[in-house]
Write a structure and sequence with these properties.
The protein is α/β, with parallel strands linked by helices. It has 31 helices and 14 strands. The chain has 4 domains: about 150 residues, Rossmann fold; about 130 residues, PAS domain (Beta-Lactamase), CATH 3.30.450.20; about 55 residues, no CATH class; about 325 residues, 3'5'-cyclic nucleotide phosphodiesterase, catalytic domain (Catalytic domain of cyclic nucleotide phosphodiesterase 4b2b, Orthogonal Bundle), CATH 1.10.1300.10. Helices cover about 50% and strands about 10% of the residues. Strands 4-3-5-6-7 form a 5-stranded parallel beta sheet, with helices on both faces. Strands 9-8-12-11-10 form a 5-stranded antiparallel beta sheet. It has a two-stranded antiparallel sheet with strand order 1-2.
Length: about 775
């Protein structure tokens, strides 16, 4: 009888089974087996004594040997069994000992097994009993032995492979290494086998990688990437490694096979993942991923140095220590899974997407500011860095600061009703975009914030929301305004009032009203009011470079913005007279406070692109899609729901305060020019001080003797304003602002073309700058 046996991916041909019967006499038991062999169509040979039996076995290598164990005086069965077993050729032979029925049943089989027997057969000459025994052996022991024999060929392949191969258990214990691995790593197999990966320096990082495999296997992948290992000499070796989890019983990973490809990078290879096979109870199935490898190929592309590997390792380690999946991990897994069934061009595009998603600064573009545009370079560098790279030789100056506890000029007007007419007139058109903040600055003797805020806060019924009196609000506004520096050319309370005005204007647009809740409106107005309080007229980079007290306090991270938010709350809650939050319910106060802090921190320019790009991806783009549907009469509800999502409301609020904060290029030309002059003057003063104190010059282009203000404004608009306001306009519809922006840009361009280095009045209004 011949049959084929499937062993994993291997098909093994099974020849007719050969049985050797060793019986001194042809008794009924011997005949029973002989006849049973005939019935089963096995080839049967009978030997009468041990010597002949051994010779016969060595000649034919029978699959089953049955030895008569009933009469030790005739045949010493255990000695014969040991002799057969001592030959290496008998490794896969099944040996059965026939014992007497009486007295033997309850004996332990231990000595039997020690002698090398596979099974004990209690005498029973019935042909059927013998036949059944042989059949059970054929489908059990013999077949298993056949498969084990085939393993020898697999091990031979491993031993001769030029790729270094290591097999570990699911617990990361090294079980096997091949000679190529020994050569590559400089260790003998004996030094490795039985040890945990982490115990051996070559593998100290691999345990992390193996954990990573667990997430790969869920989507049917092996891991491939570049891996840095230490050989026995301590040298770092860059290796192209494939790690393949081998799934065993119960669908669990039982082994990991690591193949170090000695040779060219194989990153373009096809990935294949094999499901649990027939050997372990599952059905034999391969699901083959006939496409360029995706998930892990990415590691190969950009990984040319050790630092990369270190970073990757530490992030993997961090990832594994988390019990819950981060959203980005989920997103990556979903995309990877989608790649499985995608056509090649989609798969390749998704590979690219995954590569981008794996970077950390997801929303921050990398700049290549043109060498020939120092204004752009300085603005990008000056506003978007902490200046630390220019730190050498800094003297840290720690000082003490006192803050204004109240109004510098006593409050003379207790409510909006008794405002002097010049102030009342100046705030009259506060609802319009073309409102003139500089006029209010003049008529209030540099207290525009208090008066504008009183009017605006009343319009938005802020006192009602906060449950505070107008008196408290006014006292609070006076404290806040008093803590803006009057002598800053730009970052004074007029700038805060300007930002408040823009914020209120945005809050009045339909789209924003639709999205935000009352608490968001209150947070936005308060955030705008306080967002630059106690600004010293210097940039974050300057404060870090000069080792200022604030930079030390906030660890050089978002120094000013942290200070504005923290100080505002200190001033507010530290004095009952001006504590506008004192009557609020705790939980609502927490929500409001969180909204305010988040918005103030959003004004930090290092995060500019992150905020803008997140807004575009999460708000404007989905909105555009939903609006296409809306034109067909659907989805108004979906739009509302999307806008009202807490995450989106937060992005809208951040974008709103950011746009308000730098809206000066979108103001009427006269106002825009004044703002440009003020910010330039502030930058010039900083450069003067940097030069004078021998500090790093953060923005060398902003040197009063050489700076081109038009060029600086063109760069500021190009880099920070255009894209952001395009997105904001797409969301809110702001034709007036965009018209001003176009005009102003043209104005600066015109000046630049005339190569003017100083400000000129606008063409329409020559007498007024
Ligand atoms: P903030 O300090 O909160 O007002 O953040 C806005 C940033 O944009 C500040 O660093 C300003 O210096 C900068 N900025 C605002 N307007 C202009 C402008 N017209 N030109 C150049 N920089 C500006
Ligand atoms: Zn500001």
């Amino acid at each position: 009888m011949v049959a084929d046996v499937q062993f994993g991916p291997m098909r093994i041909h099974q020849d007719q089974l050969q049985v050797l019967l060793v019986f001194a006499k042809a008794d009924s038991q011997c005949n029973g087996f002989r006849k049973a062999c005939e019935k089963a169509k096995f080839k049967c040979t009978v030997a009468r004594e041990p010597r002949a039996a051994l010779d016969c076995f060595l000649d034919n290598l029978h699959d089953i040997v049955v030895i008569d164990h009933r009469n030790p005086r005739q045949i010493d069965a255990e000695a014969l069994c040991r002799s057969i077993k001592s030959s290496k050729l008998s490794e896969n032979t099944v040996i059965v000992g026939v014992v007497r029925r009486v007295n033997r049943e309850d004996l332990s089989v231990r000595s039997f097994i020690a002698a090398g027997f596979t099974r004990r057969y209690t005498e029973n000459p019935s042909i059927m009993a013998c036949y059944n025994e042989l059949l059970q052996l054929e489908f059990g022991e013999v077949r298993s032995q056949l498969k084990l024999r085939a393993c020898n060929s697999v091990f031979t392949a491993l031993e001769k492979s030029q790729d270094a191969i290591e097999i570990t258990s699911e617990n990361h214990v090294i079980q096997y290494v091949n000679p190529a691995f020994e050569t590559t790593m400089g260790y003998q197999s004996g030094e490795l086998i039985g040890k945990e990966l982490a115990e051996v320096p070559i593998n100290e990082k691999k345990a992390d990688l193996l954990d990573r495999i667990n997430s790969c296997i869920r989507i049917g992948k092996e891991w491939e990437g570049v891996y840095y290992a230490k050989n026995k000499n301590g040298d770092n070796i860059q290796q192209n490694v494939k790690i393949i989890p081998v799934v065993g019983q119960g669908g669990k990973i039982r082994h990991y096979v690591s193949i170090v490809c000695n040779g060219t990078s194989k990153t373009e290879e096809i990935h294949e993942c094999v499901a649990p096979d027939s050997q372990t109870g599952g059905h034999m199935s391969n699901w083959k991923d006939r496409r360029k490898s995706s998930l892990d190929i990415r590691y190969a592309g950009s990984r040319t140095n050790e630092a990369y590997s270190e970073r990757r390792h530490s992030s993997l380690a961090r990832m594994h220590s988390m019990t819950m999946e981060a959203p980005i991990t989920k997103a990556i897994n979903i995309i990877s899974a989608a790649q499985e069934s995608s056509p090649m061009p989609v798969t390749e595009a998704l590979d690219h997407v995954l590569e981008i998603l794996r970077t950390t600064e997801l929303y921050s573009p990398q700049f290549n500011a043109k060498d020939d545009d120092p204004h752009a370079t300085d603005l990008v560098g000056g506003l978007m860095s902490d200046g630390l790279q220019r730190l050498p030789g800094t003297n840290y100056v720690l000082g003490t600061t006192t803050f204004q506890q109240g109004a510098r000029s006593p409050a003379t007007h207790s409510s909006l009703q008794d405002l002097p007419s010049r102030i009342a007139q100046a705030v009259e058109d506060e609802e319009h975009w073309d409102f003139d903040i500089f006029r209010l600055e003049a008529v209030t003797y540099n207290q525009p914030l208090v008066y504008l805020a009183l009017k605006t806060y009343a319009r938005f019924r802020i006192c009602e929301f906060l449950n505070c009196s107008e008196l408290t609000l006014r006292a609070w506004l006076e404290v806040i305004e008093a803590n803006y520096h009057k002598d800053n050319p730009y970052h004074n309370s007029t700038h805060a009032a300007d930002v408040l005005h823009a914020t209120a204007y945005f809050l009045s647009r339909e789209r924003v009203k639709e999205a935000l809740d009352p608490v968001d409106e209150v947070a936005a107005l308060i955030a705008a009011t306080i967002h630059d309080v106690d600004h010293p007229g210097r940039t974050n980079a300057f404060l870090c470079n000069s080792g200022s007290e604030l930079a030390i306090l906030y660890n050089d991270i978002a120094v000013l913005e942290s200070h504005h938010a923290a100080l505002a709350f200190q001033l507010t809650v530290g004095d009952d007279k001006c504590n506008i939050f004192k009557n609020m319910e705790r939980s609502q106060y927490r929500v409001l406070r969180q909204g305010i802090v988040d918005m103030v921190l959003a004004t930090e320019m290092t995060k500019h692109f992150e905020h803008v790009n997140r807004f575009v991806t999460s708000v404007t783009q989905p909105l555009a899609l939903l609006m296409e549907n809306e034109e067909m009469g659907k989805d108004q509800e979906a739009i509302s729901a999307m806008l009202k999502m807490p995450e989106n409301r937060m992005l809208i609020k951040r974008m709103m305060i950011k746009c308000a904060d730098v809206s000066n290029p979108c103001r009427a030309l006269e106002l825009c020019i004044k703002w440009a002059a003020r910010i330039s003057e502030e930058y010039f003063t900083q450069t003067d001080e940097e030069k004078q104190r021998n500090l790093p010059v953060v923005m060398p282009a902003f040197d009063r003797s050489t700076c081109s203000i038009p060029k600086a404004q063109i760069s500021f608009i190009d880099y920070f304003i255009t894209e952001m306001f395009d997105a904001w306009d797409a969301f809110l519809d702001l034709p007036d602002l965009m018209q001003h922006l176009d005009n102003n840009f043209k104005y600066w361009k015109g000046l630049d073309e005339m190569q003017l280095r100083t400000l000129r009045p606008p063409p329409k209004n020559p007498g007024k700058p």
